[in-house]
UniProtKB/TrEMBL annotation, chain A:
It is a multi-pass membrane protein. This is Branched-chain amino acid ABC transporter permease. GO terms for biological process: amino acid transport. Its main location: membrane. The chain crosses the membrane at residues 6-28, 60-79, 91-110, 130-159, 189-211, 223-250, 262-281. PANTHER family: ABC TRANSPORTER PERMEASE PROTEIN, BRANCHED-CHAIN AMINO ACID TRANSPORT SYSTEM PERMEASE PROTEIN LIVH.
From TrEMBL, chain B:
InterPro entries: ABC_transp_permease, LivM-like. This is Branched-chain amino acid ABC transporter permease. The keyword ATP-binding does not apply. It is a multi-pass membrane protein. It comes from the Bacteria.
Length: 291, 333
């Protein structure tokens, strides 16, 4: 029982991080039909911005702020301007391939310019354990989970309650009609990219203290975010949250109870099953299909 | 002008062939290996080009089929079978598995299909790594010989290069026949407008499966040539990265263009080698080049050529129109 609670809590913490990344992923898809194959590398990169700032003797809070700012600039605005904008009208596939190349670019660029080794990353949430029902629960896990959920609900509130948020939703649902209604569609799409950049930066700051900052750490995270987004539902934020949490828990239980060789296969089977039997995702709306 | 273009194309084809036949004579052992690898990857990319470029079905599993082909040949060859048997098994097995992988495509499209095939690709990798009784796991399989064709051994790098080239020629001829056959037309109809194809009596269901199966079989064929090329088969080359790389070759070369995969594979296999002088940075430069190219021309390298000839035609036509109206104008009052 104690073991189960530990697994569940660790799973929820990982899952909350997956959810952050998956939400950004679905937002980009909704507003600009961008399948970002570099999303995992987007999570890897901000940690290195912070490490670079720390190396210049910046205090942690300042380094985190710099990391966030640099992410918004590079992964948000620059990514949209330089990569997405020129390619958008040519369809989904060339853009997807371009993000694949971007992921190689970021990964190899960090490896060459910073380090090929895993670097320790300071945690800004408290460590230690608390006892609960006879289980030793890591405070770090709990605080990651809580922090991520707060971010998600704040984002949800922003999208639902504020005028800008509603304009963003309108843009995602139907850009032409949104434009007719006087919504600055271009700016709304830019906001989406900035939100994605903010989400991956936060995910990066939360996950790097646990798994260390390494140039290749985006590979597994990116894949997990894809799976979470699809399992939960590609077109709903609550789907990405549920998908992320579910995947985190399934992942952790599979690691404990399925053979170590095939633990990686469990999320994939989940993915295939969901796509084949409920393509809109567990919590998504059914999308109109062209065929 | 049509005859002119046809002559030009034939000349380019002959020059390319001559280049491929002669260039390895002046290359080092490693250079010949890279050229052989280019031929193998071209075959795999041609298969994906059929599935994606002609039939419009996204697949992120081509690397897995190269793996299946490689393992089929490695396992059967170590048991002492002549090359033709493992080759046929590799192609047949990939065809059958590709057919099955096509079934999800009947239900879902586009990015969903991409993710099903992505999951399949990762699962196949796990099987290669974990089923030690069959694949020897991470230790890999070695100790199988390169084939002897009509009594000629292909053991030397140069001989094996010509063997790869012959296999590439067979694959090219096969694909040229396919895309010109009624099947090829049906594939294009499927890509352009599935509903209309269905209403015109094209059995879209069968052709979707067929597009997957034939494309995958060519992946298996490439794998069957890859195994004797490297003479050691382990799971490492067959991760998702290979599938993504092959997809990149197809798009970079020009998806849906017959010779797109040749160029795409050349960029993906040869360009990183030329960039070796940049040491660790070569992949960064390569990735930047691919991004730049796609931003400039999302239809790939042959898309650039296509656009260029189209522009020239338009310019020539407007020049002719201008000349015609100039010669007409004096008659006008």
């Amino acid at each position: 029982m104690a073991n189960m609670i530990n697994l569940l809590m660790a799973g929820l913490a990982t899952g909350a991080i997956y959810a952050l990344v998956a939400i950004g992923f679905t937002l980009l898809w909704q507003t600009s039909q961008t399948i970002n194959f570099a999303q995992g590398e987007f999570v890897m990169l901000p940690a290195f911005f912070v490490l670079a700032a720390l190396n210049l003797k910046a205090p942690l809070w300042l380094a985190l702020l710099i990391g966030l700012g640099a992410s918004l600039l590079v992964l948000g605005a620059l990514f949209k301007r330089a990569v997405v904008d020129p390619m958008l009208r040519h369809g989904v596939l060339p853009l997807a391939i371009c993000t694949m190349a971007l992921s190689i670019f970021l990964k190899e660029g960090v490896k060459e310019s910073y380090s090929a080794e895993a670097s320790p990353f300071p945690s800004f949430v408290p460590g230690g354990n608390v006892s609960l029902l006879g289980a030793q629960i890591s405070i770090q896990s709990v605080s990651i989970f809580v922090f991520a959920l707060v971010v998600v609900f704040a984002l949800q509130a922003f999208l639902m309650r504020t005028s800008t948020g509603r304009q963003m939703q309108a843009t995602a649902q139907n850009p032409s009609v949104a434009r007719l209604l006087g919504i600055p569609v271009e700016r709304m799409i830019l906001y989406t990219f900035l939100i994605n950049a903010g989400l991956v930066a936060l995910a990066s700051f939360l996950v790097s203290p646990v798994y260390l900052a390494k140039f290749s750490s985006g590979e597994t995270l990116g894949l997990a975010a894809f799976i979470a987004a699809i399992v939960g539902g590609f077109n709903q934020i609550r789907g990405a949250i549920a998908g992320g949490l579910l995947l985190g828990v399934v992942d952790n239980f599979a690691a404990a109870y399925v053979s170590t060789q095939y633990r990686g296969a469990v999320p994939l089977f989940l993915l295939i099953a969901v796509i084949l039997f409920r393509p809109q995702g567990l919590f998504g709306r059914a999308e109109e299909r062209t065929v | 002008m049509g005859a002119n273009a046809a002559t030009l194309r034939a000349a380019a084809f002959a020059a390319g062939l001559l280049f491929l036949l002669l260039v390895p004579l002046g290359l080092s052992r490693y250079g010949v290996y890279i050229m052989s690898l280019w031929a193998v990857m071209t075959i795999a990319a041609m298969g994906l080009n059929l599935t994606l470029g002609y039939a419009g079905q996204v697949s992120l599993a081509q690397g897995a089929f190269v793996g299946i082909g490689s393992y089929a040949v490695a396992i059967l060859s170590t048991n002492g079978m002549p090359f033709i048997v493992p080759l046929l098994v590799a192609v047949g097995l990939s065809f059958a598995i590709g057919w099955l992988l096509g079934y999800p495509a009947l239900r879902v499209q586009h990015h969903y299909l991409a993710f099903v095939t992505l999951a399949f690709s990762t699962l196949v990798y796990l099987v290669f790594r974990n089923e030690e009784w069959l694949t020897k796991g991470i230790y890999g399989i070695m100790g199988f010989k390169r084939p002897t064709i009509f009594g000629i051994s292909t053991a030397t790098p140069l001989a094996f290069y010509y063997f790869c080239l012959a296999m590439l020629a067979i694959a090219t001829a096969f694909l040229a026949w396919i895309v010109r056959s009624p099947w090829g037309r049906a594939f294009v109809a499927l890509r352009e407008n599935p509903v209309r194809a269905l209403s015109l009596g094209v059995d879209t269901r069968r052709y979707t499966l067929m597009a997957f199966a034939i494309g995958s079989a060519m992946g298996g064929f490439a794998g069957a040539v890859y195994a004797p090329l490297v003479e050691f088969v382990d799971p490492t080359p067959f991760t998702l990265a290979l599938s993504l790389n092959i997809l990149m070759m197809v798009i970079v070369g020009g998806s849906g263009f017959f010779f797109g995969p040749f160029l795409g594979a050349a960029i993906a296999v040869l360009l990183p080698e030329w960039l070796r002088f940049a040491h660790g940075w070569y992949l960064v430069i390569y990735a930047a080049f691919v991004m730049g190219l796609l931003i400039y021309s999302p239809t790939g390298l042959l898309g650039v050529a296509d656009r260029w000839t189209a522009n020239r035609k338009t310019r020539r036509a407007s020049a002719e129109r201008a000349a015609a109206s100039a010669s007409l104008s004096p008659e006008k009052p």
